[in-house]
Amino acid sequence: MMSFDFNSKPLLIFWETTKACGLKCEHCRASAILEALPGEMNYDQSIEFLSHIKEFGKPYPIVILTGGDMLRKQRIWEIMDYLRSQEIPFSVSPAVTDLLNDEAIARFKEYGVSSVSISLDGMKAVHEKVRGIAGVFDSTVKAIERIIDENLPMQINTVVMRSTVRDLPDVLKLILDKGVKVWEVFFLIRTGRGIDREDLTPEEYEDVNKFLLFATGYGVRIRTVESPIFRRITMQYSEEGELNGGELFDLLKRRAIDLIGHPAKDHSRSVIPTRDGYGIIFVGHDGEVYPSGFLPYSVGNVKERSIVDIYRNSALLRRIRDPDNLNGKCGKCRFRNICGGSRARAYAYTGDPFATDPSCIYEPDADPITA
What we know:
The chain is of the alpha/beta class. The chain has helices at residues 43-51, 76-85, 102-110, 124-131, 136-149, 168-178, 202-215, 229-240, 247-260, 307-313, 315-320, 328-332, 343-350; strands spanning 12-16, 62-66, 90-92, 116-119, 154-160, 182-187, 221-225, 275-276, 279-283, 288-290, 300-301. Strands 1, 2, 3, 8, 9, 10 and 11 form a 7-stranded mixed sheet that branches. Strands 4-5-6-7 form a 4-stranded parallel sheet, with helices on one face. Helix 6 (168-178) packs parallel to helix 9, helix 7 (202-215) packs across helix 8 and helix 7 (202-215) packs parallel to helix 9 (247-260). The chain is globular. It starts with 11 loop residues before the first strand and ends in a 21-residue tail after the last helix.
């Protein structure tokens, strides 16, 4: 992975294949609806967009087929067959509805998907409140078990917000019990249906990220979305060898130990320094391209320009990839190359994608070690 030059090509291309979805998630970035919106890329436009990915050169970026619900995309199986024929790696992120049945899961394996992502935001009461559909928790657990039975690589996606945060240790236990190897944790951004009252305080962000680093000691690989401070905390732990937090950290840690026991391994010390527009790019249902799905700042449209041209030559993307262009404490932080702050959260709070990430409590001026 680290052979990628993130200035010339992304590691991950997230493609919002459609906004159509049968769920009603209260935080949804896509503000998903039951039917596709006008302007959604048709099959020919979709194939034209995907055909340019090979111009990035090998190893090709991984395409993440997301939504809405990617299973509601017209001709989605033909699209997957095209990706397979071109040897472009792709993963799928379906919603847990009736469309995610045994046949669909078997076809994922047949079409050679790299991994399947399933959302699980908490235990039954919490998950069903967030997802807006009664019974979806049991369906989600069954889908996880069916995917594991097919020996398909998979990950669990969990959104962190006030409604879900205390269930994180319970989700971790379920992940470990089911044999899932990857946990991707999304931190709420105020976009789509993302709601202000659900946001955490900066101190709580710090505690949750420290808990996630603690949780890597159980042997699960953890990635964060819109919380690159996880990497800053990882590097600080590598330097200091101590992991201490506040009240929320202590609560989550105690709950995990009660449920699972003490971690058997050391906490992870590895980082991959992707961030919005740097190693990651997002293509909307209508072809609009954004630094990420949570940063609604258009940098072009794949109906008009290739994804390669947009990624390499967009003025905003070229600027955002250089951490020396960041403002405030993010711009002078010694961790700016491996963290850089959430550009989406900075934009959501200030309207400036180069501003300080408001979720971070770290003070560069107080650190005796300089960049």
